[in-house]
Predict the structure of Non-specific lipid-transfer protein.
Amino acid sequence: MAFASKIITCLLILTIYIAAPTESHITCGTVTSTMTQCISYLTNGGPLPSSCCVAVKSLNQMAQTTPDRRQVCECLKSAGKEIKGLNIDLVAALPTTCGVSLSYPIGFNTNCDR
């Protein structure tokens, strides 16, 4: 009986550690402050600052779980709507331009729940 309860306890602990997190630990403040390096490029074009690509890669590294990716997506969409004059083509191409491969398109119509 004691052995069975130890097994059950171990399985419960394992389940807790293996279970995927259900909420993000990334804030919109973190997302927007990270991406400020890119605003000038995304509104005015011109040469892409290396600091922008560092920011894109950093944000991609931060967003490793599905809840984190959803949070980053929602934050970027929200922030993007507040920035006047964003070049949507530059926004959509930014991850690829910076060498980050995403499995979904970037834009204001992106469904962050998928």
